[in-house]
């Protein structure tokens, strides 16, 4: 799949532990730290990440979160918003009611003002039915080969997935992925990261052998070298990576410092064949909200307006 040459990030105004998302995100952990301190730490990590990305010549569009209503998970825009290489801008149905406030018209308007949007799709109507599909959290999209990999969970409804895939000319590859306690992985992008020529994959999480074989075969036939990670590594977000292109055309694989530290030297060497590794520390964001650096970045594949 192509690597995006620009990303969108939302600077949080009310970061904190989201009780609504914690119902099915087992990567979250409640903190005794007060809300103001959590917000300040998250801002420091966010601003450092933006500065680090820009220092590596990566184009970053930063949009400030609106203060009201409070949106503790607004730092993860990729769950409600995605763009595609053929000019589509899509908005998705969100599981937690308080995350639906993140879908702001002014963000859509800014993107359509700055970039060429050929088609707009809003899938939010499925929220009324209790069916959800949380963007590139739910879906690992291979634009080059028109394939979507998705771990089915409360946040990734198979019927909506198949409708989205069909409407956009993609093939949906759905499977079950679980943690060590047998609970569904809430988002596919914590156990799988797809680059142009590689895939980081927590094979342990796909317990049905035939499903794992099918996923592996599709990845290999589309030219992706598989880099397996363990559930232990998945739990520190080693599957939550994103490959982007900087302004010099170099491929850069963004991951958290915790994810980087969990990788073996052999895994790092394998990944370095395809991309320059860029670890960034976001410990407060990871622990409090149960998501990491990939979740913080919505890829912009759209063509910029003159």
Annotation keywords:
single chain, 306 residues, alpha/beta, three-stranded mixed beta sheet, 17 strands, 27% helix
Description:
This protein has 306 residues and is of the alpha/beta class. The chain has a single domain, classed as L-arginine/glycine Amidinotransferase, Chain A. Helix content is 27%, strand content 23%. The protein is built from nine helices and 17 strands. The protein has helices at 35-55, 105-114, 135-138, 158-167, 209-221, 231-234, 257-262, 265-272, 283-289, and strands at residues 6-11, 59-64, 81-83, 88-91, 115-116, 119-122, 139-142, 147-151, 171-175, 192-194, 198-201, 225-228, 242-245, 251-256, 276-280, 298-299, 303-304. Strands 2-1-16 form a three-stranded mixed sheet, covered by helices on one side. Strands 3-4-6 form a three-stranded mixed sheet, with no helix packed on it. The longest helix has 21 residues, at 35-55.
Q: Could you outline the blueprint of secondary structure elements for this entry?
A:
Layout: E1 6-11, H1 35-55, E2 59-64, E3 81-83, E4 88-91, H2 105-114, E5 115-116, E6 119-122, H3 135-138, E7 139-142, E8 147-151, H4 158-167, E9 171-175, E10 192-194, E11 198-201, H5 209-221, E12 225-228, H6 231-234, E13 242-245, E14 251-256, H7 257-262, H8 265-272, E15 276-280, H9 283-289, E16 298-299, E17 303-304
Parallel strand pairs: 1-2, 4-6, 8-9, 11-12, 14-15
Antiparallel strand pairs: 1-16, 3-4, 5-17, 7-8, 10-11, 13-14
């Amino acid at each position: 799949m192509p690597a995006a040459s620009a990303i969108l990030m939302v600077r949080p105004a009310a970061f904190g532990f989201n009780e609504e998302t914690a119902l099915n995100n087992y990567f979250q952990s409640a903190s005794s730290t007060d809300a103001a301190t959590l917000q300040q730490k998250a801002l420091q990590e966010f601003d450092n990440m933006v500065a680090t990305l820009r220092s590596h010549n990566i184009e970053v569009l930063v949009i400030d979160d609106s203060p009201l209503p409070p949106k503790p998970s607004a730092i993860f825009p990729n769950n409600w918003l995605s763009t595609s290489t053929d000019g589509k801008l899509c908005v998705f149905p969100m599981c937690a009611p308080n995350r639906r406030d993140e879908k702001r018209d002014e963000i859509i308007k800014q993107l359509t003002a700055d970039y060429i949007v050929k088609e707009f799709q809003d899938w939010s109507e499925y929220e009324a039915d209790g069916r959800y599909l949380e963007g590139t959290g739910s879906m690992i999209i291979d634009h080059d080969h028109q394939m979507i990999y998705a771990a089915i969970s409360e946040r990734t409804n198979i019927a909506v997935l198949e409708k989205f895939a069909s409407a956009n000319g993609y093939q949906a590859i759905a499977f079950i992925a679980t943690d060590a306690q047998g609970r569904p992985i809430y988002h596919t992008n914590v156990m799988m990261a797809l680059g142009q020529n590689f895939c980081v994959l927590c094979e342990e999480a796909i317990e049905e052998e035939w499903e794992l074989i099918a996923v592996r075969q599709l990845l290999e036939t589309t030219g992706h070298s598989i880099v397996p990670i363990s559930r232990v590594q998945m739990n520190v977000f080693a599957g939550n990576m994103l490959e982007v292109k900087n302004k010099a055309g170099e491929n850069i694989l963004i991951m958290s410092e915790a994810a980087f530290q969990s990788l073996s030297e052999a895994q790092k060497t394998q990944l370095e064949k395809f991309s320059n590794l860029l670890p960034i520390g976001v410990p407060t964001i990871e622990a409090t909200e149960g998501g990491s650096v990939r979740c913080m970045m919505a890829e912009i594949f759209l063509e910029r307006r003159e």
